[in-house]
Amino acid sequence: MRTITVDYVKNNINYLIDELTNIHEPIRIEGEKKRAIVMLEVEYFERLQLFKEVKDLRLDCKKSVQSIFGMLKHKAQTKAVSIEEMEEVIKKRRYERVIK
Fold first, then answer.
1. Cα separations (Å) of 56 from 48, 61, 80, 88?
2. Rounded CA gap, 12 and 70, in Å?
3. CA nearest 25: which of 9, 12, 44?
4. Which of 4, 22, 27, 48 gives the lowest tally of CB atoms within 10 Å of its CB?
5. Taking a C-beta distance cutoff of 8 angstroms, is the pair 29, 37 a contact?
6. Rounded to the nearest 5°, which phi and psi values hold at 39?
7. CA angle 37, 41, 43 (to 5 degrees)
8. Which of 39, 46, 50 is nearest to 17 (CA)?
9. pTM score of the predicted model
10. Is 90 or 73 the better-scoring residue by pLDDT?
């Protein structure tokens, strides 16, 4: 990641915006006392957000399936559970989370 100074941003903001949309990578901006922020184009940021949402959704699904299997495993009498039944339980749990 390229690092630039606040003074560079102040003097070249229009050029910097054009450059960010061309290189599709974030740029680190350092201020006083080496404090820094990251500047990136909107499309790059939106892709990061989408990736995070997909990752969170996959993690939620994995936890739900593990929980269902854990409950079934600990029952005194086990029974076969169809995929449809498992999907229904997962949908109910997601719905309950949204309502809370």
1. 12, 9, 29, 20
2. 58
3. 44
4. 22
5. yes
6. -115, 135
7. 135
8. 39
9. 0.49
10. 90
